[in-house]
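Whether sequence alone determines local backbone shape is best considered at the level of individual chains. The sequence in question and its structure tokens are set out directly beneath this paragraph.

===
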Amino acid sequence: MLVENVMNGIKVVMMWLFNLIPAPEQTAGAGLGGVAETFIDIVQGVAYVLPVGDILIMLGIWYGIYTFTIGWKLIQRIWDALPFT
């Protein structure tokens, strides 16, 4: 019960800190749609010169490995922070 109260206190403090972060303002032309359209235009322009399909496969593999390493490091940090290890 004591640990639960301490954890709830930590959660309240963390939520308070997260609420202090201002939310980004969204304007009509500054959404992610413009970024996606620009990226698609770049890929279509490069497709005439480079094998974009192969590059996208390699990019997907790299992204998968990179996100796995981030997740694995996060799991290791959480595991090391646990008091019973």
Remarks:
- Residues 4 and 10 are 10 Å apart (CA to CA).
- The chain has a mean pLDDT of 81.
